[in-house]
Design a protein that fits this description.
The chain is built from eleven helices and three strands, in the order ααααααβαββαααα. It is mainly alpha-helical. It starts with a helix and ends with a helix. InterPro entries: GPCR_Rhodpsn_7TM, Vmron_rcpt_1.
């Protein structure tokens, strides 16, 4: 078990460093230069992922609360609520990123083309409603999570060493499950739909390029590269999301959390926030140029 926990610590450290680097880059771009439309959404996703690592139960907020001698009940509510909100924001912002990239690369003859000129306005409004929605949906955690006391007496489900999930009646549990599942299924469906739409556009664009440049290979456009990056992130996210959903659903159904399964679930939950910044860093030409300039100055 200790080896698994060490892997989680290493995973969290790598994730925080990669996302912090990416967030600082986006802040520099947004404040100092003309940012791309997708930079605002990407910076939000990066910020969300940093908070996901800090509220993951291994590092960050839990340790800060412990050092400040804050009551265990408050610590559990704060960490679990923040963690649940960040998980909801992760899927919501990833979906938003996919939708707006589909709008960005849509041809001028499509119905989505009319939204291109007001992307920034729609983007800010969408981010505001997404935050409000997820803060509201996850508020039940403030009532049904608290400090661990005695499982045998109160039928609590112990989810960490010091925190537990209080029993719910079947109606509330059903409502929470229905709402969470509906949100996940809807957002995943939107991501898959926009991904299929973008794949279709890229395929048509590739056929046109082959027709126009039969004797030479055309260079990959920045839009195409950005679209391929988002498609990769969406596919990876969908796979990780459903694995995590199956584990959570089974544990809630059986009202039992095995410590090893919980650790594996944490590892899977944090896989996407680690892969995302690494993929974005390796595919963003601006970041590559900055790193090359730093390397040349060092030598």
């Amino acid at each position: 078990m200790s080896s698994l926990e060490n892997v989680l610590y290493f995973q969290a450290g790598l994730g925080v460093l990669a996302n912090m680097f990416l967030l600082l880059f986006y802040i520099f771009i947004i404040l100092g230069q003309r940012p791309k439309p997708m930079d605002l959404i990407s910076s939000q996703l990066t910020f969300v992922h940093i908070l996901m690592f800090l509220t993951g139960g291994n590092i960050g907020i839990a340790d800060i609360f412990e050092s400040l001698n804050i009551k265990n009940d408050i610590k559990c509510k704060a960490t679990f609520y923040t963690s649940r909100v960040m998980r909801g924001l992760s899927i919501s912002v990833t979906c938003l990123l996919s939708v707006f990239q589909a709008v960005t690369i849509s041809p001028s003859t499509s119905l989505l083309a009319k939204f291109k000129h007001q992307l920034k306005k729609y983007m800010i409004n969408a981010l505001f409603y997404i935050w409000c929605f997820n803060l509201s949906v996850s508020s039940y955690m403030l009532f049904y999570v608290g400090g661990f006391t005695n499982v045998s007496e109160t039928k609590q489900m112990n989810v960490t060493k010091s925190c537990s999930l209080f029993p719910m009646n079947y109606i509330i549990r059903g409502l929470i499950f229905t709402l969470s599942t509906s949100r996940g299924v809807f957002l995943v469906a939107v991501m898959l739909s926009t991904s299929a739409y973008m794949v279709n556009i890229l395929h048509r664009h590739q056929r046109q390029c082959k027709h126009l440049h039969s004797n030479r290979n055309p260079r990959t456009s920045p839009e195409k590269k950005a679209t391929q990056t988002i498609l990769l992130l969406v596919v990876f996210f969908v796979v990780m999301y459903w694995v995590d959903f199956i584990i959570s659903f089974t544990s809630l159904l059986l009202w039992m959390y095995n410590p090893v399964i919980l650790t594996v679930q944490k590892f899977l939950m944090k896989a996407y926030p680690i892969i995302t910044p690494l993929v974005q860093i390796s595919s963003d030409k601006r970041i590559i140029n900055v790193l090359k300039n730093l390397q040349s100055k060092c030598h």
